Amino acid sequence: MSSLSSAVPTAAPVTPPVPAGAPGVPAGVPATAGAPVLGDAPVPAGVPAPSGEPTAAPASAVAPTLAELMDFVRGAARDEALIASLPLDPEERTWVRLDGPGGSEAWLIGWPPGTGTGWHDHADSFGAFTTAAGALTEHSLAVRLPTDGWRTLELKDGVDRTRELATGQGRAFGQNHVHEVLNESGTAHAVSVHAYYPPLPRIRRFSRTGPVLRLEQTERPEDWQ
Q1: Phi and psi at residue 74, in whole multiples of 5°?
Q2: Which of the listed residues 74, 96, 160, 187 has the most CB atoms within 10 Å of its CB?
Q3: In terms of C-beta distances under 8 Å and separation of at least 24 residues, what long-range contacts does 16-19 make, across chains too?
């Protein structure tokens, strides 16, 4: 079994910037060596961290920034007609593809009571999401996993983070962000808006038993589109 104690170096704790309106982020989140952090995950090199004001992309670049993705999901979450148009199912999650900014991949997702994603990551994509109705819980790992070449890892103590995301609250994240998102309500649906850039090239899905994380499968865009 591989261990993140030796596979992933860590740097001194860093207090990450928090997008305006996002839930508080605890200080002292472990950082990957040499990388700034946003929330629980390193920010991709060259991508500005979100702030209270949108950050315009350089004229030579077409990629949206994290701030622009966050602005998009917040704006879509406030669109009452859009949220009401999503068909909801009593047992299964539902989703509709949206036109994200700058060629990003965006989704409107409905969450019946008690449903969730399971543990997964987003490969080289960074992104943002906001709860538009109801409430969601995010469990995440404040550590970067090895990209490839492993099936089982033992996580160090202290890498788990939990956020409660009520209506109107959201978060941004960097590349290789590992998390699971849940609607823990026993009675109420939740709705959320998500955006990723670049469009998701793959999703790795994991199972977890205590500190042991196991890679179960890798999905490609044709598996969810």
Answers
A1: -65, -45
A2: 74
A3: 16/49, 17/49, 17/50, 17/51, 19/50, 19/51, 19/66, 19/67, 19/70, 19/128, 19/170, 19/171, 19/172
Amino acid at 99: D
Structure tokens at 34: 């040499």
Cα–Cα nearest to 107, from 77, 151, 62, 147: 77
Tokens of 189: 């649906």
Tell me the residue ranges of DSSP E strands in the chain.
2-3, 10-14, 29-32, 37-38, 41-42, 94-99, 105-111, 119-120, 126-133, 135-141, 152-154, 160-166, 170-173, 179-182, 190-197, 203-209, 212-219
8-state DSSP, 116: B
Task: Give residue 9's identity as a one-letter amino acid code.
Answer: P
Tokens of 138: 């995010």
In terms of C-beta density within 10 A (0-12 exposed, 13-18 middle, 19 or more buried), how is residue 92 classed? exposed
